[in-house]
């Protein structure tokens, strides 16, 4: 989408929101409720990432210093209101270029199709920005939205709409930053104890990859050749590129069951090697472009609470997911390589599923004074093309483990998380500790240990162990 089309679209949304938010009698025809209410909350945060790799020079260990601000605003009544969740990011190199000069949000200034305004050292992200209207058993929303479809904790195959922000791998907050908002119109209908939801997404929002030259850039090889991965491009604003989905919820004998279907752009691009890159005094490398294709999917998600456990399973099937036919490059010379590019693509049957549980450990049975809640989480996620000639999906055969607890009236939070890529025997371990003061001040420290093998998509992260510290103030 061009700058002009982007600005025009979001200008219309802004005008609608302003009319709702600031009209003198905006709800007089809808209900006889009390006057509209206004609420605002958020936080400001200083975020720093420091490398622990022992062979780096002292002036190179500081990988990112960031100032972040979040503002959540709600104005209106229960049945008719405007809701915004805005994230603003600023790097100190905006003021002084010598501070973390290698870290960038984007390689160029741009306005994305979900209204995000981004540049190398500053960004404003309208993660959620919608108008909500309810009448009877029907809820309507229009604007940027996050759709929490699925029951799994980490990877949701039935989350068809919101793509990931992978610029810092998976280290962004999974609840507030990992998934990106997408412009959509949605309708939720309550049918007794059941619900039926419809979603239309007119604009395509691709995932975001790390910028080349930054701390978290992807360093990948295709056979013996290094790979450069381009940034994904959004599909143009056309009817053929719109996404349409529906989900039905019903409780059966204590099982929460969600049935869903979707047609539209896939949230996961296929990584297509397209051509060679020749640079002086550098080895021949391959340019890989993430491409998007339309896909049809049907899925189900089920959860069940049993004693101290909550079990979760979800899966999707597609008859026409596009994949890349793999090529063996191990014994190929650089001269022969261009004859095989670009790789061929075709459609295949495809399945993806996640299965796991949360175990609420009964600590109080042994320690009566324990106030917090100790939870162990396990999840197994796998994606599979029926055609064995295809390149493997980017995120597959993953085990997620997490143990978390809190103490001192929920002020002290302790967590250890692990991400294991079983197929490549790669893994990361992230212990973290945080303390929340009564004044609204929060302090969090996380250590990130990375062991990534050469055949992983994330092999370049192997020497990027780091410590992340965050100091925030809530208002």
Describe the structure.
It is a single chain. The chain has 1 helix and 24 strands. The protein has 475 residues and is mainly β. The chain has a domain at 1-127. The strands form 2 sheets. It has an 18-stranded antiparallel beta barrel. The chain has a 4-stranded mixed β-sheet with strand order 10-11-15-14, with no helix packed on it. It is globular.
Note the overall shape.
globular
Estimate the strand proportion: over 45%
- How is the main sheet built? 18 strands, antiparallel, barrel
Instruction: Give the helix tally.
Output: 1
What's the order of the H and E elements? HEEEEEEEEEEEEEEEEEEEEEEEE
**Total number of strands:** 24
Output mean pLDDT. 88
> What gyration radius follows from the Cα positions, in whole Å?
23 Å
Cα distance, first to last residue?
36 Å
Judged by helices, strands and strand pairing, the structural class is mainly beta
Poorly predicted runs: 1-5, 15-32
Helix content, binned percent: under 10%
Which quaternary structure do these chains form? single chain
Give a topology summary.
Elements: H1 3-22, E1 37-51, E2 62-76, E3 80-90, E4 110-111, E5 117-118, E6 122-135, E7 138-145, E8 182-191, E9 194-201, E10 220-222, E11 225-229, E12 243-252, E13 255-265, E14 270-277, E15 285-291, E16 294-306, E17 309-324, E18 345-361, E19 374-385, E20 398-407, E21 412-421, E22 426-436, E23 441-451, E24 466-474
Parallel strand pairs: 11-15
Antiparallel strand pairs: 1-2, 1-24, 2-3, 3-6, 4-5, 5-6, 6-7, 7-8, 8-9, 9-12, 10-11, 12-13, 13-16, 14-15, 16-17, 17-18, 18-19, 19-20, 20-21, 21-22, 22-23, 23-24
């Amino acid at each position: 989408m061009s700058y002009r089309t982007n600005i025009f679209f979001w200008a219309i949304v802004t005008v609608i929101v302003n009319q709702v938010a600031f009209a003198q009698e905006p709800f007089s025809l809808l209900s006889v409720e009390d006057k509209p209410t206004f609420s605002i909350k958020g936080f400001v945060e200083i975020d720093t990432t420091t490398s622990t790799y022992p062979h780096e020079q002292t002036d190179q260990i500081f990988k990112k210093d960031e100032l972040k601000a979040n503002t959540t605003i709600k104005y209106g009544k229960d049945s008719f209101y405007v809701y915004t969740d805005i994230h603003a990011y600023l790097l100190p190199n905006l003021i002084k270029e010598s501070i973390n000069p290698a870290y960038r949000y984007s390689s160029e200034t741009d306005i994305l199709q979900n209204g995000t305004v981004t540049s190398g050292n500053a960004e404003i992200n309208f993660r959620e920005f919608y108008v909500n209207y309810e009448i009877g058993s029907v809820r309507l929303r229009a604007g940027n939205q996050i759709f929490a479809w699925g029951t799994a904790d980490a990877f949701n195959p039935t989350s068809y709409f919101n793509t990931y922000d992978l610029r810092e791998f998976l280290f962004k907050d999974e609840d507030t930053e990992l998934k990106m908002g997408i412009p959509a119109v949605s309708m939720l209908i309550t049918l007794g104890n059941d619900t039926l939801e419809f979603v239309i997404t007119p604009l395509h929002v691709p995932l975001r990859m790390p910028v080349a030259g930054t701390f978290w850039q992807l360093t990948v090889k295709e056979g013996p050749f290094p790979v450069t991965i381009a940034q994904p491009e959004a599909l143009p604003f056309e009817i053929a590129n719109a996404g349409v989905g529906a989900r039905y919820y019903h409780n059966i004998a204590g099982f929460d069951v969600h049935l869903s279907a979707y047609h539209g752009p896939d949230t996961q691009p296929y990584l297509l090697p397209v051509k060679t890159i020749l640079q002086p005094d550098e080895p021949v490398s391959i340019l890989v472009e993430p491409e998007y294709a339309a896909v049809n999917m049907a899925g189900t998600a089920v959860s069940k609470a049993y004693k101290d456990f909550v079990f979760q399973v979800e899966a999707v099937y597609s008859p026409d997911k596009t994949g890349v036919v793999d090529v063996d490059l191990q014994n190929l010379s650089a001269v022969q390589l261009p004859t095989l590019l670009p790789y061929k693509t075709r459609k295949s049957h495809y399945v993806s599923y996640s299965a796991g549980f949360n175990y609420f450990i009964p600590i109080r049975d042994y320690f009566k004074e324990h106030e917090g809640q100790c939870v162990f989480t396990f999840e197994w996620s796998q994606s599979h093309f029926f055609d064995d000639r295809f390149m493997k999906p980017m995120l597959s055969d993953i085990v997620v483990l997490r143990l978390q607890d809190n103490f001192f009236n929920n002020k002290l939070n302790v967590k250890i998380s692990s991400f294991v890529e079983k197929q490549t025997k790669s893994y990361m371990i992230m212990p973290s500790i945080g303390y929340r003061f009564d004044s609204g001040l929060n302090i969090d420290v996380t250590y990130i240990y990375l062991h990534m093998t050469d055949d992983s998509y994330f092999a370049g992260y192997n020497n990027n162990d780091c410590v992340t510290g965050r100091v925030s103030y809530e208002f």
